[in-house]
Amino acid sequence: xxxEISDSNFKEVISKSDIPVMIDFWAExxxxxxxxxxxxxxxxxxxxxxxxxxKCNVDDCPQAAxxxxxxxxxxxxxxxxxxxxxxxxxxxxxxxFQTKIDALV
Length: 105
Description:
Structural class: alpha/beta
Strand content: 25-35%
CATH superfamily: Glutaredoxin
Shape: globular
Oligomer: single chain
Number of helices: 4
Order of helices and strands: EHEHEHEEH
């Protein structure tokens, strides 16, 4: 299951993780976000221990969304060693996410 991050812990999660971090910026009212939600959960289970899959609701975490310049959702950011290394804006198929994750692990 994807780990929920918030305005109060997102910096710590990114900087202290020993494995790459994937953040799905989403909202409940967003149709494309709901479409990729099950994919994000599958990836969380499939890559458990290899990448930390997190979710950030932009309505509940405006500071995190602003910090990363999130203007469109869904947006998925990928971090390694505390630095953003890739992103996916808009919905995408599972294989697109797998390609990005495989490049990090």
